[in-house]
DNA sequence: CATGAATGAGCATTCATTCAT
DNA sequence: TATGAATGAATGCTCATTCAT
């Protein structure tokens, strides 16, 4: 049993080892430069070994994406716990997403990459699994808003829709970071972001 | 000078010829299937000739992207002209962007292609040129809002910021189309979009 | 000794188990899709275990080939027993081979696989063993012809040679099935086959 | 025009160069060891260059096969011209095929390889083109037989079928060369071949 | 005996780009 | 100007075989 345990552990370790290499590569050279043989090289493993632990290149990316979403999720959770007022919690969530896009730019990029790509990368099953990680995040936003409604702070007939809109706005604005020096040239991006978040919160606050 | 003019004209003609081929290919087979030799074939030119008129494959894409932005711009203009009420105009703009993302998916894709790419494709000059096309669109939104304010219909201290937020929300929500069957499973995407647009308009309407 | 016997038996059992898996795979997906790990999976054994019972992938194929030859042999025997007239028996053998090539295409393919390969797969010993299975079949043909000669129905100075020619013709014609739609476009393949068999039988019949 | 001619010639030369390399490799290492990069190496060309002259690996093999069939065809023609008696011509054709299988074993092997392989290698169009080369050979056999019939030397109701049977027999017997040391151990292969050819010729000769 | 993790050579094909003519 | 032949790096993936446990 000790043997079995150790084996399972080692297997988990190898997976991490591979994901580490993939992440490193992805973050250093961009998604297009991540090749299986590259990963194998970084991980000091044979190419075949990669395929022993992951069915696909796709599956590796999916794992990384889930990692990222989980990280974001935990960041959001932490911030939520430090605030009690729903409006502060919403702002905190937005703040966490912004921080995530800066401090974990690489994870943010990979999540965005697949969300924005015109081509379909993941097979149905895998896609569902990934998206469910996103679901958890949406759920927090929703719960926060519902809690605000129950507390009589927020007022909104369609809290579910509003949550999605909230998240969509954050997402879209973070996407615009690229335009900082051109379209948004006279505008501080973070200011714009915070302004928007406030606007959204005001929009559901009881007056 | 007649000669010079003719030369310039011919050069412009060749460029169009190449872009026509590239566009045809892009629309018939998607962004991944556009290859230089494919373009050369369609344009009935040699591969090398393409490189005489465009430095890069990316430069061709950039030109197409501008086309797309121009098309979106003209669509928005048309809609604006058919409405006089600023709130209807804003809704119309949002509507136009949604339509564009569906009816001109290829252009929408190519625009996103560059916006999402973590690597910088273009030299500064080229990038600015493209982004300015986006600027024009943002300008319309801004003007519409300003006009609404002047008419006493809208109320907003930071019309510029609100315009960006408006556009960012649209943009982010359009990206969520991919999540239709998973995260958004119980939600009609267009309904969500329209709900959000209304919410935004309400947010700046005088009460 | 009981132990030894049991061991030998078990070893034989495992071999069958592996061959069963290999056969299943061969028949369900064709010769190119048979992989050792596939066999191991189907047989619910480890990959290494396969290599304990068979030196090679080729050795597995060889075993299957023998199976095929044995099957063909038994088919021929059955047909021979139902006919008494040598000329009918010969026709029956030919018929059996044709049927075999259609109904047991997978066995037919694997037999040809080794016969057509320009490289030598097997060590001498193995090769001989396989070819002897073919020998048995040739023997039946020969016996049939000899019997016909003894009965005064056939007339032939070189019955051994004729047998080989007989079999060679069948074999060659079965290969021509591939040409059905091109070279043989105006010809029904089975008709051609039967025509040829008759021609051969006529050639040794006493007139 | 001199330039154009030279260019066309050079293009033809490159094709030959590639086919030479492919043939060399095919003949030295067997069909499974022929890789595009191997061919490129032998031909001292870049991998991409191969694909400039041939669409496919398939197309290269097809070209080699046609080469072989053409060579066989010309051998047969030569022999036919040296004989006037149809029965000698038939024997000559058989002889030519045997010689071909020995002197041009490599070409013979490749033709056989594709004829015997259970999997389909060539797409419809390509297959037709190849098979038509085989058609030419069948045609000669047929013409020879028809000529013999007209001369009152041969007697046969189905000359077309007989031609195919004739060729099929040759083909099958040549295939059996592999069995020389096992199944055919007491038999000289060439003797068997000649015996069979005679038997076939006798079978259509008027008595 | 049995396992299954690890290997790494090997494959066909694509394509942006260059450059001699 | 215009051409198009030539390049070769790069890619995802498979699989027979080995070997430490």
CATH superfamily of the largest domain in chain A: Tetracycline Repressor, domain 2
Give the oligomeric state of the chains in this entry, treating copies of one chain as homo and distinct chains as hetero.
homotetramer
CATH topology of the largest domain in chain A: Tetracycline Repressor, domain 2
Helix/strand/pairing class of chain A, anyone? mainly alpha
User: Largest sheet of chain A, if any?
Assistant: none
How many domains comprise the coordinates of chain A? 2
The residue-averaged pLDDT of chain A reads: 89
pLDDT < 50 stretches of chain A: none
Distance between the termini of chain A: 63 Å
Q: What general form of chain A does the structure show?
A: globular
CATH uppermost class of the largest domain in chain A? Mainly Alpha
Largest chain interface and its two residue counts?
Answer: C-D, 48 and 47 residues
